[in-house]
Amino acid sequence: MQFTRKTRLILDHKISSAVRDPSTSLPSIKPSLLPLCSRPCIRDLSHQPTHLERERDKMSLLTDLININLSDTTEKVIAEYIWIGGSGMDIRCKARTLPGPVTDVTELPRWNYDGSSTGQAPGEDSEVIIYPQAIFKDPFRRGNNILVICDAYTPGGEPIPTNKRYAAAQVFSNPEVAAEVPWYGLEQEYTLLQKDIQWPLGWPVGGFPGPQGPYYCSIGADKSFGRDIVDAHYKACLYAGINISGINGEVMPGQWEFQVGPSVGISAADELWVARYILERITEIAGVVVSFDPKPIKGDWNGAGCHTNYSTKSMREDGGYELIKKAIEKLGLRHKEHIAAYGEGNERRLTGRHETADINTFLWGVANRGASIRVGRDTEKEGKGYFEDRRPASNMDPYIVTSMIANTTILWKP
Question: Cβ–Cβ contacts within 10 Å for residue 193, how many?
Answer without folding.
Answer: 21
